[in-house]
Amino acid sequence: MAEPKIRFKEFEGLSCWENKRIEEICEILTGFPFEGQTIVNIGRNLLMRGINITEGVIRHSEEIDRYFDGDTSSLTKYRLKINDLVIGMDGSKVGKNSALVTKKEENALLVQRVVRLRTKNATLSYLILVSVGSDKFFSYVDGMKTSSAIPHISLTDIKKFTINIPQQREEQNALANYFRLLDNLIQSSEKKIASLRQVKAASLVSMFPQAGETKPRVRFKGFQENWKTVPFDIVFRYLKNNTLSRADLNETLGSARNIHYGDILIKFGTLLDIRKDDLPYITNHFLANQLTNNCKLQKGDIIFADAAEDSTVGKCTEIAFIGEEKVVAGLHTIPCRTLFEFSEGYLGFYLNSPSYHNQLLSLMQGTKISSISKSALLNTSISFPSNIAEQRQIASFFRSLDTQIFLETQRLDKLKQIKSACLDKMFV
User: Fold this and answer.
1) Phi-psi region of 285 (alpha: psi -120 to 50; beta: other; left: phi over 0)
2) How far apart are CA 303 and CA 297, in angstroms?
3) Looking at the domain 228-383, which fold is it?
4) pTM of the entire structure?
5) What does the pLDDT look like over 222-243, one tens digit per residue?
């Protein structure tokens, strides 16, 4: 059998790896078809369902977890053990949802359309988990899964998937320990990002006044006076936008750039920096010049997305840096310019906070596509501290959080790239 491209030095030149089907190295079992009326929200016997299994993790919540309270005397073989590998066989992410059973799921009952793989030891189970978490397995599943409304993979297909493993137990342990280290680093990074996002979400509530309040619940030291709350049109005047579609834009060349509402919803953060954010160009040079003569944007301008498929409509971005670039607001946007001075970033964070966005919920129109109009925005109010220094501290706090989230996300992406490269080179 072939050896991997990279091998731990102490094992170079030793016995080759073995190429085996999953069915050759695992005890395989699919779950029991529990009847719907026997499944309850609260009970004694946790059920291991496909919905519980995500990419590398088994998740639990009151909304997800279900139980069986009937007679289990004939269901012993469906009881899960620690380090069993479970794989969801259905769903849009079929082939990607696999995880090892932990102490929390020990003795849970395996449900239909979930497959359990059981090996002789924890090390081998982990190596199989690593293998089924690779691009090789994802590609295999993509070629085998059904194209029905709910994609699924068969038990036979799972059994036939081949895995290359070292023959020596010592090399198995070394390999497992290496990938455990990578996975621990990835999980640690994911937890840090989740924690930072929780801090930001909580701060967006506590550091801006809520409905009926004249000051926020949490403030920086030294600031005590009530905040101002004024109608939208006291703060902003509207600018012009255009209706250019994606077909009118390109990613490489042009004399002016265009802010598309889809990029506000998905790609751009609270603050838009032309040096970092990827804005498309207007393809038609004559039209680009014409638009910039009439509605060129500048630093501090706010651009709302006026349409979305959900309640994110009204999300906005504040232009933090534009330099000498010509930038205009495009399709389904509402560009605005302040009528008096605000500290950089304050309005961007405030307008994306629940304090302001909750005002938009009752003003949205549409069913499949939600929208917000210019006239609707005029029915909202803007809250802010009169002291520019307080605005500056608030903006600086949230910018610091966003920077930490960005850097940690970059670190996470790098760790995932390293793991992917190692999977490619350390498994044949």
Assistant:
1) alpha
2) 9
3) Adenine-n6-DNA-methyltransferase TaqI; Chain A, domain 2 (3.90.220)
4) 0.86
5) 999 999 999 999 999 999 999 9
